[in-house]
Design brief:
By secondary structure, this protein is mainly α. The chain folds into two domains: about 170 residues, no CATH class; about 35 residues, no CATH class. The chain is built from twelve helices and no strands. Helix 2 runs antiparallel to helix 3.
Length: about 270
């Protein structure tokens, strides 16, 4: 039913293809860096609220919940784009597993760190946990080609009919899907109480769209991804290349800075 897309094969002698495949894609790195900056600002605002410097409802206020949705969407779209580039270059599985192992290990560190700080609402399936699973599924389905678009649509839409069924005909199953054993799927009637929750559905669909969009660009407009970004965005490119390190370090650094500020204020 699904097959590889022949238009994504490398074209020997093509200047556009060779220029695109050489080195990293600055545009993808810059977009990922933009997501990192946006996320850091969001987290800093959350930290200010956590330490009582201002009062905001990050769980229910549409201003904050919409921002979180957009940040995660941009991050996962970039991850899908990156996987499209990796598949286009025929990068071997060992390299994939090295990066996947780093993400999985960092996800475990996030769980441990969040448990120390928020024992009642620690992160057990946040963005890194979700990415670890989604990256594997996206890599395995890279050959679906144009089918990734409708697959992504189904994945994004699936939580709503799932909740409808679990509130109706299959209501007796709702406790199991709402519990920690299955709520990582995202087919729930009640969101779990946790500091970060990025379930497989709907978010797998966003990464599938990133993969599909990246494959389409590489097949039809590879030069768009190959263009260098303006010099003013160079810092975003660097940040995007080290996004995992930044993700792991920015919150501890901001929390330490705010704790130090609080201590100095009281001194």
């Amino acid at each position: 039913m699904f097959c590889n897309v022949p238009t994504l094969h490398r074209l020997p002698g093509s200047a556009v293809q060779e220029g695109t495949l050489a080195g990293r894609h600055e545009l993808v790195d810059a977009l990922r860096g933009m997501a990192m900056v946006w996320m850091a600002v969001f987290h800093f605002c959350f930290d200010l609220s956590h330490f009582g410097y201002w009062s905001q409802d990050f769980r229910a206020d549409p201003f904050w919940t919409l921002q979180r949705t957009l940040i995660v969407s941009l991050f996962l779209l970039c991850a899908g784009l990156g996987q499209a580039v990796a598949w286009h270059r025929a990068l071997a599985w060992p390299r994939f597993w090295r990066r996947w192992g780093q993400i999985a290990a960092c996800a475990l560190l996030v769980t441990a760190g969040s448990y120390l700080m928020f024992p009642r609402s620690f992160i057990y399936f946040g963005v890194l946990h979700g990415m670890a699973l989604m990256l594997l599924l996206v890599r395995l389905t890279a050959g679906w080609g144009s089918w990734l678009w409708p697959a992504g649509l189904l994945a994004v839409a699936s939580p709503w009919p799932a909740a409808w069924v679990l509130e109706g005909a299959l209501a007796s199953w709702a406790p199991a899907f709402n519990g920690p054993v299955l709520n990582w799927l995202g087919w729930v009637t009640q969101k779990p109480f946790t500091e970060d929750y990025v379930p497989l559905f709907p978010w797998l669909g966003v990464m599938w769209w990133g993969m599909a969009g990246g494959q389409w660009l590489l097949a039809h407009h590879a030069q768009w991804l190959g263009r260098p970004v303006p010099r003013a965005a160079a810092s975003l490119v660097i940040l995007g290349r080290y996004s995992l390190s930044f993700y792991m370090l920015h919150q501890p650094a901001m929390l330490a800075a705010l704790m130090l500020f609080g201590w100095l204020s009281r001194a």
